[in-house]
Specification:
Rhodanese-like_dom; five-stranded parallel beta sheet; globular; GlpE_sulfurtransferase
């Protein structure tokens, strides 16, 4: 049953840098245009409108957007589908690490 009241764990962008590894997926739920303008290397672009169709295949999923609002919504959707998910607070606006452009 879908509920917005299921709490989703979250991390800061600096905690994300420490935690991201090969057993996790970084899902960027911004639009393709936002994603192309600059994203974290290795991130997978799945816009918020398509998150319901995303299957994390038993991997931990960190979800990021521009400010943290869309990623929080996406994380709740994924959690309701039994995904092991963590929201990234502050989003790309708070990210101070390197980014790459393009697809």
């Amino acid at each position: 049953m879908f509920s917005f009241f299921n709490s989703v764990p979250s991390v800061t962008t600096s905690e994300l840098e420490e935690k991201i590894n090969k057993n996790a997926v970084l899902l960027d739920v911004r639009t393709p245009r936002e994603f192309r303008s600059g994203h974290i290397r290795g991130a997978k672009n799945v816009p918020l409108s398509e998150v319901g169709n995303y299957d994390p295949k038993d991997k931990k999923v960190y979800v990021i957007c521009q400010s943290g609002m869309r990623s929080k919504r996406a994380a709740k959707m994924l959690k309701n589908n039994d995904a092991d998910v963590v929201n990234v607070r502050g989003g790309m606006s708070a990210w101070t690490g390197r980014t790459v452009q393009g697809k």
